[in-house]
Specification:
This protein is an alpha+beta fold. The protein folds into two domains: 144 residues; 96 residues, Immunoglobulins (Immunoglobulin-like), CATH 2.60.40.10. Helices cover 52% and strands 18% of the residues. It is built from six helices and eight strands. Strands 5-2-1-8 form a four-stranded antiparallel beta sheet, with no helix packed on it. It has a four-stranded antiparallel beta sheet with strand order 4-3-6-7, with no helix packed on it. A hairpin with a 4-residue loop joins β6 and β7. α2 runs parallel beside α6 and α3 packs antiparallel against α4. The protein is elongated. It starts with a helix and ends with a helix.
């Protein structure tokens, strides 16, 4: 009798221990939910950052040698021309200050032209700097040529449609990759699709952001001058980190649960931040 009672008693104790150990796993798996939650907060804060404060996106210069007049066409997309506008235009000739104009608004919500009577001759170099009253400036240079009435040099290269399209494509690929990973238990071959789309998506982000770097470099402006650029670079860094963690998870057994949760969490955060980057770019262009 004593032995019969003792055995059930021991069995109950033995069966409850795995249950206790099983309760130790939620903190590890919970991190996969905490990281995306933090990402939501971060992405929302980045999305509502002052993306509306931005420098002009383009300046085109033209000089009429017969009338000695410099034509300055500025693109600065805004919603309210009385609160967000180009507040100053500074002109130098051959490196020396020539003219400075201040403004309390701008003529239109997108592209407008100012005319300045400034003397010049073949070989002279004019540099025009237009500054936003809220944030940033853009400079453009024109060199007068012999025997021509007009010399034109464009500003920011019109590459932004390709820049945006490639980034959107990359985010879509990564979003589908996350979907396949989430539904892995019911989809055969999910890992191959996840692997392919992840690599394609990250490669697209690298290409798109690299194109953005080229645009800024060609325009002569400083890098990371607006929050849109900072958000984009942050998203790319997370995408590369998540890719490395994915490879590491596949080839290691040590800390595999932690690496898996970080890989998943960073993937969600990256998607949110890259979405915020695209949205801020749309705001920057005045398309939204």
């Amino acid at each position: 009798m004593m032995l019969g009672v003792g055995i059930p008693s021991f069995s109950v104790i033995h069966m409850t221990r795995p249950k206790e150990h099983a309760n130790l796993s939620p903190p590890g798996t919970g991190s996969g939910k905490v990281i995306p939650a933090i990402g939501v907060i971060l992405a929302i804060s980045l999305l509502f950052a002052p993306v509306s404060a931005h420098p002009p996106s383009n300046i085109v210069l033209s000089y009429n040698q017969s009338s000695q007049q410099l034509e300055v066409t500025i693109t600065h997309v805004v919603r309210d021309t009385s609160t967000h506008f180009i507040n100053s235009v500074n002109i130098t000739r051959n490196g020396s200050p020539l003219l400075s104009e201040s403004y309390t608004s701008q003529p239109s919500t997108a592209t407008f032209t100012y005319y300045y009577p400034v003397p010049g001759k073949a070989g002279d170099t004019f540099e025009v700097t237009a500054a936003c009253n809220l944030y940033g400036s853009l400079s453009e240079t024109i060199i007068l040529k012999e025997g021509t009435a007009t010399s034109i040099k464009g500003g920011l290269p019109v590459l932004w449609p390709f820049h945006m399209a490639i980034l959107v494509f990359g985010v879509i690929c990564l979003g589908i990759a996350v979907f396949f990973a989430r539904s892995r238990s019911v989809r055969k071959g999910w890992f191959q699709v996840h692997f392919l789309l992840t690599n394609l998506g990250v490669a697209s982000l690298v290409t798109g952001i690299g194109m953005g770097v080229v645009m800024v470099a060609l325009s002569g402006g400083p890098h990371l001058r607006v929050s849109h650029a900072v958000v984009g670079v942050t998203g790319l860094s997370l995408a590369l980190t998540g890719l490395v963690l994915g490879y590491e998870k596949k080839h290691t057994q040590k800390y595999k649960l932690l690496i898996r949760n970080l890989h998943r969490g960073i993937g969600w955060v990256m998607l949110l931040i890259m979405t915020a980057a695209i949205a801020s770019g749309i705001f920057l262009l005045g398309l939204w």
